[in-house]
Amino acid sequence: MATITAADVNKLRTITGAGMMDCKKALVESDGDFDLAIENLRKKGQKVAANRSDRESTEGAAIAVVSADKTSGVVITLNCETDFVGKNEGFVKLATELANQALKFATKEAFLASDFHGITVAEKLIEQTGVIGEKIEVASFERLSGAFVGSYIHAGNKIATLVALSANVSGGDEAARNVAMQAAAMNPIALNEAGVDASIIEKEIEIAKDQLRQEGKPEAMLDNIAKGKIQRFYKDNTLVNQDYIKDGSVSVAAYVKSVESGLTVTGFSRVALG
What we know:
Largest sheet: 3 strands, antiparallel
Shape: flat
Helix content: 40-55%
Strand order of the largest sheet: 1-2-5
């Protein structure tokens, strides 16, 4: 039997937003397994975020940059240990310089090995670790290409996103930025239904059925009701199906189509800190 500490309970509460006692009970029942505890909380109807990729807190700066021809972009995070360093003007400037350097390379490995003012990027990070007194590293590196790519950096450099559209059209710059802002705010797990891993859907169906059983619904009805819940899951968690944050009466897909008939979102990347 695992020892459940107050720190463990608080960590689960931070991840899920569930109550302290519910978190403690879930950890005891799962013998300290956080993923299983989260799944158990959801099965019992607790409101828990479907995507927990940002649960580990880190500090630093998230930066997105786009090429001059707007057909590619990169998002990186330059990580440090404290918020004080992450907000420093010099640190943010370095992160932006590194992001512009990263735009030239297809992989994180090639980027880290590239020349940056006479030393490699990797060596620069080591140098800055010595100067600042905190561990400095590029934790995230994601590229995105498309017919038209736009970007958005949330205030404070905590979240950075890229969005690709199917064509370069009049109003596309604003549309791409708006959808990138949507991705930053709503944290979708995939672009559309096809991008959601089958294992996630299987787990969602299992959770939905367990919730319905606890509500007393007949077993024969579970499959059909669960399918409806999955459609709601897609609407809440896939970018193009989400309600557009600036006009909740339309989906993101419908908003983009209103900019130009036939225009679609073809991809996105999102990185976050803290």
